[in-house]
Amino acid sequence: MNQPKFNVLGLMSGTSLDGLDICYSQIWKVNEKWHFSIIHAETIAYSEAWKTGLQNAHLLADKDLKGLSSQFGLFLGEAVIDFMERNVVSDLDFIGSHGHTVLHQPEKKITLQIGNGPEIFNKTGIPVICDFRVQDVLLGGQGAPLVPIGDELLFADYAACLNLGGFANVSMRNDGKRIAFDICPVNIVMNALSEKLGHAYDINGNIARSGNLIPNLLEELNGLAFYTQHPPKSLGREWLEENILPLLIGYTNIPDVLRTFCEHVAFQIAAILRPINGEILVTGGGAFNGYLIARINALSKKNLLVPDEKLVNFKEALVFAFLGVLRELNEVNCLSAVTGATRNHSSGRVYK
User: Fold this and answer.
1) What was the pLDDT predicted at 1?
2) pTM for this entry
3) E strand or H helix at 30
């Protein structure tokens, strides 16, 4: 039986702090196969105040963090209204919002994405589905990654889907099941290093390309214990601050550090991709880093497909809109084989 078309707005704020991704799409099902069309999409760059506030949110006391979550919810609601007016969007069924991850400690059953759902609903008057990760963590899962349900149902023609965002993650089928996991940090580190030289990010990897490899640093990075752990596994800012940043302290030549970190990323990703047979879809901001893609290609010898710019930039926002559709239909949107939860489930809080 075919489902009606859903008109959905997906909101995504990633750990790399590139900005707020807004994706307006239609999602529908024909003959048991899901389809989508991205109609309008754009990234709203964060002001320096918001970038700093989100970057340091994990340091706030509970009361202040709740206040920030409400403020961010209002910001999201205002961004939605502005987006809809500029793009003449109407007749939305709901908003699927990821929010912005502040805390992610699944081993302690903690995951927090700020961007208060009720605030978005009160501001826009449009139903909101959000907090997709919380239920999974309570069920013993990692609460991440969640995008693989979209890979399974919207991008099944690819052997694997690789996302190069704040962190890299991969999604693929293994023994008849969809598995997925975080691989390593990417833009959350490389953007921060580029900012030290006055650039928001390393355009096409040109800074990294100009640097020299630091063998000792590369060895230390590749020797981190996380890389020997078996999935399901996920990464957060806390892990980065405890394990990656201490290794970078003391190195003052930023191009050399970027070159070395880029090689570390390519090494870790290539190790995961080598056993995969078939075309690999690459999305996320790192897909535009030509030097990084070239290094992954050289080390993995795999067929990497970077699609059109709209899908590269907005695949995650699209999928969180899709998670909202599945939640609206009470269908599974969190896969236990991916997250390690005790069961598949339909997750997300609904405000309307």
Assistant:
1) 53
2) 0.91
3) strand 20-30
